[in-house]
Each structure stands twice: as structure tokens, then as C-alpha cells.
Design goal:
By secondary structure, the protein is of the alpha/beta class. The protein has a single domain, classed as Rossmann fold, CATH 3.40.50.1000. The chain has six helices and six strands. It has a six-stranded parallel β-sheet.
């Protein structure tokens, strides 16, 4: 595994990356954290590496749940992370879908991944340097906006990751994507880099 410099921030997908993908999750009781993720968030917090969650939530446009439900679920995730002494710095979500049922959310937007809107919002709001950030997700569409902005990209094999890995060779970004088992392996990459930096020649 190659070495990576400590990132300024991590821009991370939600469903299938941090929590199990429950197919249009709409209630906090449905949250099931992927094993090791809360520990990874704790570690990242100790390293002062903020985590920003960027998520497509087309269930709003499809009429499956109200937009307020997204905030309720995200709020519960934030509290869970804090209870584990981790942190989620901010959430960004896209409620749109071009074939939705709720008119106000049913159009082609610039924030539904793989469009870059959510990434650009996070970068602008938090003065991030994208070339020093990592994009993490279980789908190629979670990574492509970050790669276009100069980020390092990591495909996790949780959620849809294994299926997406089979399509990886078709991506123009194939050689720029690192495949990891899950979010906790990100913790290992950073720990290994820290050890290398602390070695006295």
C-alpha cells in the first residue's frame, strides 16, 4: 500500500460508507454503523482531521420521506459520533432527482453526485484546499467529483463497493483510486504515515 500525506479533511459518503445502506433510510432507528467506523471517527478527531459527509438523498424528491427527515438522521449520526468521542464536522446533502415526484426537488441540479456541487459547497464553506483532501465512498460517483478537483480517492468495499470495484477498470480515474476494505483502513493509512514521519534517520 502506498503512503499518503495526512489530509487536511475527509469528504465522505454516508450510506454504504459510514452506515449500512438501508435503501432510502428515513428514520434514526434505521441507522446501523458499519463496524469500526465510529472508532475511525474517534481517531480522525484525535488527529484534527475534520470529516464532512456528502450524501445524495433522492428519497426526498421521490416522495419517500420529507426533507426534514434527512436532518433528523444526520443529527442522530452526529450525536452518535460525539458519544464515541469522534466528530462529524458538517453534512451536505442533495435532495433532488430529475425524475422525482415532489416538484420542488425534481430537476437536474449541480449537487447530485457525480456532479461536484456538494464538494464545492464544503470547500467554500470551510476554506479547504482540495489537493490536500481525501474523498471516500462506496460508489465511483462518490469519488469522481473529488478526483476532478485534485483529491485523493478511496473506494471502500462496504455498501456497493465490491460491485463498484468490478467496474473500476472502466473509470477514466482507474489508476487514481485506492481500494480499501472499509473506513477503518483509512485510519491505518494515516497511522502508518505518522510512524514514517517520526522515524529518525
Amino acid at each position: 500500500m502506498p503512503s499518503f500525506s495526512k489530509p487536511q479533511a475527509i469528504l465522505c459518503d454516508r450510506d454504504g460508507t459510514l452506515i449500512e445502506d438501508s435503501h432510502f433510510l428515513s428514520h434514526p432507528d434505521q441507522i446501523e454503523w458499519i463496524p469500526g467506523v465510529l472508532e475511525a471517527l474517534k481517531f480522525l478527531n484525535t488527529q484534527d482531521i475534520p470529516v464532512f459527509v456528502l450524501t445524495n438523498q433522492s428519497g426526498v424528491a421521490r416522495g419517500y420521506f420529507p426533507v426534514e427527515a434527512v436532518g433528523v438522521v444526520n443529527g442522530k449520526m452526529r450525536r452518535d459520533a460525539e458519544a464515541a468521542t469522534g466528530a462529524i464536522a458538517d453534512f451536505y446533502y442533495c435532495p433532488h432527482h430529475p425524475q422525482g415526484q415532489v416538484i420542488q426537488y425534481s430537476y437536474v441540479c449541480d449537487c447530485r453526485k457525480p456532479s461536484p456541487g456538494l464538494f464545492l459547497q464544503a470547500i467554500a464553506h470551510h476554506s479547504l484546499d482540495p489537493t490536500r483532501c481525501w474523498a471516500i465512498g462506496d460508489r465511483l460517483r462518490d469519488l469522481e467529483p473529488g478526483l476532478q478537483l485534485g483529491m485523493k480517492a478511496f473506494l471502500v468495499k462496504t455498501g456497493y463497493g465490491i460491485q463498484e470495484q468490478q467496474e473500476l477498470s472502466k473509470s477514466p480515474f482507474y489508476e487514481q483510486i485506492t481500494v480499501v476494505s472499509s473506513m477503518p483502513e483509512i485510519m491505518d493509512l494515516i497511522q502508518n504515515e505518522s510512524k514514517m514521519l517520526n522515524v529518525t534517520p
